[in-house]
Amino acid sequence: MRVVVSGGCGFLGSHLCEALLARGDSVHCLDNCSSGRTANIARLLSVPGFRYQEWDVTEPFVLPGRADAVVHLASPASPFDYHRLPLETLAAGSRGTENLLRTAAHHSARFVLASTSEVYGDPLAHPQDEDYWGNVNPIGPRSVYDEAKRFAEALSMAYRRSRGVDTGIVRIFNTYGPRMRAHDGRVVSSFIRQALAGEPLTIFGDGSQTRSFCYVDDLVRGLLAMIDSSAPGPFNLGNPHERTVRELAELVLSTTGASSGMRFLPLPVDDPVRRRPVISRAREELGWHPAVPLEEGLRRTVSWFRSQGEDSATEAGR
Ligand code: NAD
Questions:
Q1: 31, 33, 226: which to mutate for ligand 1, most atoms within 8 A of CB?
Q2: In 3-state terms, what secondary structure has residue 273?
Q3: In whole angstroms, what is the distance from residue 263 CA to residue 214 CA?
Q4: Contact (Cβ atoms closer than 8 angstroms) between residue 27 and residue 7
Q5: Please, what is the Cα angle at 263 between 262 and 267, to 5 degrees?
Q6: I need a labelling partner for 178 at 20 to 30 A (CA). Which of 14, 39, 281, 309 fits?
Q7: pTM tops 0.90, yes or no
Q8: Ligand 1, closest atom to CA 9?
Q9: Among 92, 85, 89, 74, CA closest to 16
Q10: What are residue 128's DSSP bridge partners?
Q11: Is 145 assigned a catalytic role?
């Protein structure tokens, strides 16, 4: 297969490009490096079948050559990035999604949208299955991300219904692993950075809010299954093992051996209190389930952060 991966220089995108190449597919990677880094794909540039094109997906796009699948991951994704790039986030979800849907339509290719658990907002239903419609504040500071993804889902379904495009939607829950950026504002990377720097881990609220953390290799297997499927989804992809943020902090402290403790700050606006995916649909229709326990995933992630040395703790990690 020849697969177009938008956002391929990012955290998830670079792991996906690698996995596609490893199974013999060729990859056309598009990225504007607004939050990704070419360092993430440096190793792939010499791999036969890999091509990188620096491109902003909000610009109309004509693909050189054919495509069998288009995977749309390009979007500012961490709170740090979407607060810094609010209009760009809305554009990536709207114009960017439409440009890639047009590409998929033109090539009769499979289209996979990387949506998010944020479409559920601060959920009133717990745990969240795909039939839950969400509780999103449309004008709050997080809305640029949440609503962009909700619009992207609507657009994908409209192209499926009116243009016959083979679309599939995955709603990704918190994923962590090597190549997260130290300063991206996500809880796992922030905790690891702080622990390795000997600083107290910052907890917003009292730490009783929950999240479920999926290791990147598990998530990438889910994306591959979605590329190979013709199911429309949406499918939740995430680890249903729910942990409190405080438990995560304790685990990071024990994994790193840090003794820097924790400090508590007020909860940000619209921060969801509970998050846990129901994944029975992905289990049944994609045969997917996560396999890497948090303890093991954290060990691998901490070891990667350590291998980055200074970069993981300083400006270079931004
Ligand atoms: P990331 O920031 O590491 O990667 C996103 C990539 O998209 C970056 O390389 C960035 O430079 C690129 N990009 C952004 N806007 C672009 C544009 N207009 N044109 C071209 N490239 C552009 O984030 P990630 O964690 O790898 O997330 C990838 C996708 O998965 C995103 O769509 C995100 O919403 C979704 N997602 C991720 C998570 C997670 O936990 N990592 C959870 C839910 C959803």
A1: 31
A2: coil
A3: 25
A4: no
A5: 120
A6: 281
A7: yes
A8: 9
A9: 74
A10: 277
A11: yes
Which residues, in sequence order, are CB contacts of 197 under 8 Å at separation 6+? Answer: 313
Q: CA–CA separation, 111 vs 165, rounded Å? A: 7
pLDDT along the chain (318 residues), means of 10: 98 98 98 97 97 97 94 95 96 98 98 97 92 95 96 98 98 97 92 97 93 96 98 97 95 96 87 87 98 97 90 46
Residue type, 167: T
**Start-to-end Cα distance in the chain:** 34
Q: How far is the CA of 197 from the centre of ligand 1 (A)?
A: 26
* Cβ count near 230 (within 10 Å): 9
Cβ(265)–Cβ(156) below 8 Å: no
259 Cβ contact partners less than 8 Å away, ≥ 6 residues apart: 253
- Residues with beta carbon inside 6 Å of ligand 1? 6-7, 9-13, 30-36, 56-58, 73-77, 81, 92, 96, 114, 116, 172, 174-175
Residue 265, burial from CB neighbour count under 10 angstroms (0-12, 13-18, 19+) = exposed
Both tokens assigned to 256: 């790193």
Tokens of 33: 């490096």
Can you tell me which atom of ligand 1 is nearest the CA of 8? 9
71, 75, 156: residue to mutate for ligand 1 pocket, most atoms within 8 A of CB: 75
Residue 250 token pair: 């304790």
C-alpha torsion 180→185→190→194, nearest 10: 120
Q: Classify residue 257 as left (phi > 0), alpha (psi -120 to 50) or beta.
A: left
- 301 CA from centroid of ligand 1 (Å): 19
Q: Is 113 helix (H, G, I), strand (E, B) or coil?
A: strand
